[in-house]
Amino acid sequence: MIPWGLMLLWGLYICYITPDPIKAVKYYTGTMLLPFFIFILFRNLRLDEKTLTKFFDSMLISGAVIGVYSVYIFISYNMRSNMRVPSFWNDFNMVSMYLMILFMFNLSFLIKSRHTNKIYFYLFTITFILLGIYLTKTRGVWLATIISIAVFFIRKPKVIIPVFLIFGVIMLLFFNIIENRFLSVVNFDQDKSSLGRLQAWYSTVLIIFKNPFFGYGFDTYYLHKYDVFPFYIVDVPHPHNAYLRAIQELGLIGAVIYFFLFFKATVLSFTAGMSHCDPVYLKFFDGLQLSFIALIVAFNFEPYLSLFGVTTIVVWILVSLTFRLKDMPAAEKIKTN
Questions:
Q1: What is the pLDDT of residues 20-66, one digit of tens each?
Q2: Which of 199, 130, 183, 328 is nearest to 122 (CA)?
Q3: Do 148 and 104 form a contact (C-beta atoms < 8 A)?
Q4: Chain centroid to CA 323: how far?
Q5: DSSP assignment, residue 32?
Q6: pLDDT tens digits, 84-116
């Protein structure tokens, strides 16, 4: 509990230096207190394989519903190749990240499933979850997904067959969209979004250099961005990078404290999954590994650990679940099976 104590105490200091007290309370509650309560909740829940499977199956259903509605919107607007679809949400990047995590667990469950009915269910959900991801046109999430699958393939080569099949179908259906987003990366000097993001990163680094260790307070980038640049290609409200945002707001000290449990959970998802886990829980550890690898990449492109969406809650659920599974005694695992 020492990391949590340090995080909550440092968060109080950040609240104190935040110019807007209402915003300070909101961010402290949403990005620190709530994750702490989620962690405590998972530590005290009695979990078994069946309960966890139902929990994630319900999340997969939510992802499939989001994907179905995205497809409906896309068709309703005559399938315009330049259209980005956020489904029910307002933010493309946040819904894409949520669907990305669901895809990782969906893929793990599909590979591990031995029941025909469940295989059909996972094929249905993964199809619409992937469609939802592609229709957001979020390049950072696409890259994070590809890198995560590549790392997973190195560890488990058999995953490449179902992945190639799924990605192949998606590319055939939406080749124009994929080509459009790929060209926007290749020709980034002509893409305002890419140039604006580079400027956001650089300006954040310049702001951090002025006060590297103690931060400026919650959501304060917009207050300081004109101190380093008089003009922005795109009017960016935040650094478009979870790591830089954390350092700018919390300082280097606070950012290290804040990300400690996330990176420790990432390591545990590999070590505990290989040495401490009952076989029925391997599908969850595989999903966690895929998700953490993808998140490490995706954090470079958007402030997912913020109040812009429910993504902060989802990330801390993954962290809390990893610690819970790691600490679950072997006897309890056998009993719950």
A1: 999 999 999 999 999 999 999 998 888 888 899 999 999 999 999 99
A2: 130
A3: yes
A4: 18
A5: I
A6: 888 888 788 889 999 999 999 998 898 888 777
